[in-house]
């Protein structure tokens, strides 16, 4: 009854579980490397479906207008719909599947607890214990996802020069990264950029750091800072 009363949430729960399943079979290619590539695409397609459903839930009344598009781009679900479309037809990259896998796992775990509560307050204690541990580590998982989002930017450039990516991919991914940096709901991308900058500046200011390395790092920090969007 609980599942039927929340059909859209249940559909997203199922699609997230399927995303976790496909992502796991890509990361751990138990069925062979050829099958792993197909599971990579299935995971991203399932994530795109989940993101589209979530976006519909957040903005139920679609309008073909600039204002609606601007509002949609503020939603995290729209960001990951774009993310899935960027990588679904590209060369499989293990780093790109981790944000999809972990976000799906966190959201699926949250809804699974609701399903268990609807069934019985004491049902499946072992599973509840696992879900509680996952919830306790949520902040570290979100930071790891943000770290993946950041380091995928140079990875897309490397893929371009190695012949495994398209010319447009780094530019479209840069747009995705600016959306994540400006996210209202998830500040971890901004936080990681700040933390990485502090760590790098601390390291290069040590006397043992060569001058040319210090200058290169400072120039890189200045360049990246200029590319960062303004956050209200």
From TrEMBL:
Membrane topology, as annotated, equals: Multi-pass membrane protein
Query: Which keywords does this Swiss-Prot/TrEMBL entry list?
Result: Membrane, Transmembrane, Transmembrane helix
Q: Does the keyword Transmembrane apply?
A: yes
The protein's matches in Pfam families, at most eight in alphabetical order, are given as: TMEM33_Pom33 (PF03661)
State any GO BP term from the record.
membrane organization
Primary site of residence: membrane
User: Where exactly are the transmembrane stretches of this chain?
Assistant: 12-33, 80-106, 150-174
Subcellular location per UniProt equals: Membrane
On the tree of life, the source organism's domain of life is Eukaryota
Record's GO cellular component, any one? endoplasmic reticulum
> Which residues are in coiled coils?
none
Q: Which family does it belong to?
A: Belongs to the PER33/POM33 family.
Query: How is this protein named in the record?
Result: TMM33 protein
Q: Which organism is it from?
A: Climacteris rufus (rufous treecreeper)
């Amino acid at each position: 009854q609980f599942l039927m009363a929340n059909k859209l949430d249940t559909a997203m729960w199922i699609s997230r579980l399927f995303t976790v399943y496909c992502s796991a079979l890509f990361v751990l290619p138990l069925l062979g490397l050829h099958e792993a590539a197909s599971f990579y695409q299935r995971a991203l397609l399932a994530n795109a479906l989940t993101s589209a459903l979530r976006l519909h839930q957040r903005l139920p009344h679609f309008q073909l207008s600039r204002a609606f598009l601007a509002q949609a781009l503020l939603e995290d679900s729209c960001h990951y719909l774009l993310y899935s479309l960027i990588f679904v037809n590209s060369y499989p990259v293990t780093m790109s599947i981790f944000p999809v896998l972990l976000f799906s796992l966190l959201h699926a775990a949250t809804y699974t607890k609701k399903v268990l509560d609807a069934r019985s307050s004491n049902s499946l204690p072992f599973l509840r214990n696992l879900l509680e541990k996952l919830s306790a580590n949520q902040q570290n998982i979100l930071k790891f996802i943000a770290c993946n989002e950041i380091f995928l930017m140079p990875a897309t450039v490397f893929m371009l020069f190695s012949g495994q990516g398209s010319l447009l991919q780094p530019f479209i991914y840069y747009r995705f990264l600016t959306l994540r940096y400006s996210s209202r709901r998830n500040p971890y991308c901004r936080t990681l950029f700040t933390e990485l900058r502090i760590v790098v500046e601390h390291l290069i200011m040590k006397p043992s750091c060569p001058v040319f390395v210090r200058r290169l790092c400072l120039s890189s920090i200045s360049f990246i800072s200029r590319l960062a969007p303004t956050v209200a």
